[in-house]
Amino acid sequence: MSAERELLLRLTESFRRQRHDFFNHLQVIRGYLQLGKVERALEYVDQVAAPGPQQEISRVTEEMLQAILLDWYFNLTARGVRVTVRVTEEFAQEPVPEWSGCAEAFYAFAGGCGEEIAGEAEEDLFTADIDLVFREGGFSCRYMLYRDGALAEEREFISG
Description:
Elements: H1 3-34, H2 38-49, H3 53-58, H4 63-78, E1 82-87, H5 90-93, H6 103-112, E2 126-135, E3 138-147, E4 150-158
Helix pairs in contact: 1-2, 1-4, 4-6
């Protein structure tokens, strides 16, 4: 199976999970409203709608790179990892140099990060930082996984 097809199938499954989560959020809001707890419902909406990694990823203009980052994020969060994503401003403004030549390698890199997390992790046991930095002639991506606050894995991808 091609990497693009595999990515499409994985994102489709992630969409199903997100849809399920979305309806769960609606049920929580409905419950608060039925109980007359309007303030609590509004607080919950603010909590759920707060900017996060998905908004940061959506700034990336290179669509395939954005899809890979979303898949990576969904894969980690589905296993209980709290994820932080930082993307430098250039990704929102410029095409990534030589992207087509490194797309599959980056997809393999992202897929290999966090392999040691078996199944679903205990809540708040793992956190991950993903830093995407625009560089001359390409980009770099640094991945750091922490277990109970201690660095458990660190990897870096450099294109070009």
